[in-house]
Structure formats: C-alpha cells, structure tokens
Write a structure and sequence with these properties.
- The chain is of the alpha+beta class.
- It has 2 domains: 2-125, no CATH class; 134-241, no CATH class.
- 16% of the residues lie in helices and 33% in strands.
- It contains 4 helices and 13 strands.
- The strands form 4 sheets. The chain has a 6-stranded antiparallel β-sheet. A 3-stranded antiparallel β-sheet has the order 9-11-12, with no helix packed on it. A two-stranded antiparallel ribbon has the order 5-8.
- The longest helix has 14 residues, at 18-31.
- The protein is elongated, with a radius of gyration of 29 Å.
Length: 243
C-alpha cells in the first residue's frame, strides 16, 4: 500500500518579522515537502539472500526537478525456507484496505503546530487488498513440512498423523477470516450435533489408485495414492464406464 501526504507549510503569521516567516515557509516546504509510506508483502522466495522492502517511508524534500529523503525508515525481508506468512494459504483479512480508508479520512486537513500551519492532502493506493490472517497449517496445528504454501488438501492429514484433530473442513479457495458459507455452516452444524464427519480432501483422478473402468452398477475400491486411505466410489461420471 502507498500513502502519500502532500504537505504545505504556512509560517509568516507567526513571526513579527515577515521576512523571517517567509524564509521559514520556503525552507520547510523544500525540506518537508511530502510524507510517503509504502507497505509491501514479504517475499515468498525460499532460497538466496535477495532482500525485498516490507516498509519504506519518510519525509521527502523537493526543489524544482530534484527530490530526496530528508528522513527515511525502511525494513526488508530476506528469503525464508518457510515462505511468506503474508500470502500463505488460509483465511485472509483486508488490513491494507481498512488502513487506506482510515488514512483518507483524517480528523482535519489542517494541523496547527508551533510556528507553522500544515495543510495535508492525503492519497492512498492499495497494492495488495488482502493478506493471510490464519495460515491453514497453523489452524490445523500441522506437524508436517513447514513450507507455508505446500498443497496439503490432497491428503487426509488425520491418516498421516499430521494434525491432532478428529476432522476438519477446508474450502478449495482461500476465504475471508470467519466468513460463513453454506458449506462450512453445514459442516459446523453437524459437528455441534455430535455427528462424525470425514475430513476434507480434494483429489483428482491422478491421485487415485484403482481400476480404470468399472461397470455402472458396480462398486470399486479406490485409494488415495498419496496416503492410501480407502475411499469408495461408485461407477458414475467421475470414472470411465464400461459398455
């Protein structure tokens, strides 16, 4: 997210000598021309030493076609074997959007300080509207690989002993934190009622072991090739029918 505050300083009214006031106004407008703050997601690179900004901002000065930082603060992220928590799979939140909205609605566009008046002109630009809030692996107390963007929905993590839960539900796509859908409400209702349920697994035909063809009225035994937890499928549109 980018925040830009174009500052205008007015000082003459506070000085007995208007010349001194005019000089003060000129200097402050040159060296304290604008406030800038840029926020970025941490990078998802897992190897190497390349650095990326997560925050870069400060007070900038400007005169004619020159500009510079009068004061500057910056933070950088480096490669991490886990990847980035900011874009990890799981629930997300719109903190940047909320911050941008709050920044565009200041209490007052005019600020009175000793020896000067500052006029603010705030503008914001949201680069990444959402960020990861609760990573899936964190929500599941996952004990397997610690790489945050690993695909784990194609295995039954209860069978592999990688989560302490008896069952869990997960959508195919990331959703807003505590967002209610028809699917997760139905699952949660059954859990509250004490009905046991299978965990959510998303598999394709490449993840299953079993016969390529079965009769429409037959029942076949198929196994998840990654975990070998048995799953039963009847001969329907998800397998090739025999004629």
């Amino acid at each position: 997210m980018n925040i830009n505050d174009d500052l205008t300083h007015i000082s003459p009214l506070f000085y007995p000598n208007p010349v001194i006031g005019a000089v003060h106004t000129l200097v402050t407008n040159i060296f304290f021309d604008e406030l800038m703050a840029d926020f970025y997601h941490s990078n998802n690179e897992k190897n190497g030493n390349e650095e990326h900004f997560t925050f870069d901002g400060g007070i900038k000065g400007g005169f004619l076609w020159w500009d510079w930082y009068t004061t500057r603060t910056s933070f950088k992220s480096i490669s991490n074997s886990k990847g980035s928590y900011d874009i990890a799979s799981g629930s997300y939140f719109n903190a940047q959007g909320l911050l941008a909205k709050q920044s565009e609605e200041p209490d007052d566009g005019l600020e009175l300080l000793p020896f000067t008046i500052i006029l603010h002109n705030l503008n914001t630009n949201v680069l990444d509207p959402t960020h990861s809030f609760i990573p899936t692996k964190s929500a599941l107390a996952y004990s397997g690989n610690n790489v945050l963007d690993e695909v784990i929905g194609n295995k039954n993590r209860i069978c592999t002993g990688e989560t302490p839960f008896d069952s869990y539900f997960a959508p195919k796509q990331n959703e807003e934190h505590i967002f209610l859908t028809t699917e997760n409400v139905a699952w949660l209702t059954k859990e509250i009622q004490g009905n046991s349920q299978s965990s959510t697994i998303y598999v394709t035909e490449d993840d299953l072991l079993g016969a390529n063809r079965i009769c429409p009225t037959a029942t076949g035994l198929y196994k998840n090739s990654a975990v070998l937890c048995a799953r039963i499928f009847e001969g329907k549109s998800d397998v090739t029918k025999m004629h």
